[in-house]
Amino acid sequence: MSALKRKRGGKGPGGKSKKVKLVENGNEPKTTETEQNKEISVPAPVSMGKWKNKERVLVFSSRGINFRTRHLMQDLRTMMPHTKADTKMDRKDKLFVINEVCEIKNCNKCLFFEAKKKQDLYMWVANVPHGPSAKFLVQNVHTLAELKMTGNCLKGSRPLLSFDPQFDKEPHYALLKELFIQTFSTPQYHPRSQPFVDHVFTFTITDNRIWFRNYQIIEEDASMVEIGPRFVLNLIKIFQGSFGGPTLFENPHFESPNTRRRVIRLATASKLREKQMVKELQKLKRTENKEVVTRDVTDDVFATPAEERPVHIELEAPAAKVVKKNKHKAFKRQRMQKNREKTH
What we know:
It is found in: Nucleus, Nucleolus. The chain is α+β, with helices and mostly antiparallel strands.
């Protein structure tokens, strides 16, 4: 037996090993040109690359959210194939517990929806476990089912991210841009993603807020139709750590929902108070003692001096006027007299 052992299918000492196909007789098969033409060539798979950027996003919420927030979370999970879900977190638990949940789920990004007072919705976008993280107030939420848009995109397709030019002008917006890119973009060659690009995520800055829209690319000339969902992000703070730590940026234009509701209540109360004061003034005017006016000031307005006429005194009595008797009454008297004479 030779000293060099030869592995199965490996290389021998003489060079490359050849794989030989045998037929029943033990001889090598002879391939002709006609047989080569009949061979079916199987095309290579669409994606030959490897999944290197293993970004996983945990999307979940706290207890107390409404149906609109629940549908918004479901829409984000549908659009982003690299997301994972988890049960709702209790309100008593602190936010640092989310880092442990992400570690258990093997996620390095997190979208956490926090509900307060059953009417205010906050969203955390965090890079777990080292940070940074940003806290937003979510406003004007419209889901896929609510908008009833005509567009429709392929499930699991990779989106294009479109950002406003203002994201490159200010440092805190540049940090948010990088955080959004790592969170919302589907990694290349992800197992659950499709190798198509047929929709666009747009992030626009208007009125010191970030407006999120989702559009479908319907034709090659880049004409788009809005699909949904849509929502507005009002930045509150950016923290250095994950769900806490030193504050890197605080929005000076942010007004909390409690302050806004308080201003509305005070404005309504001031209007009611003003109406009540007007009513009290009207009552006081009615109950005041009215001054008795003895002489009317307006009596002499139309008083004009009359023309002076000479005084004429009549010394003789005026002549008596002849009163003409009514003919019908005279005839009546005559008839009555005749009747009396006849009776006598």
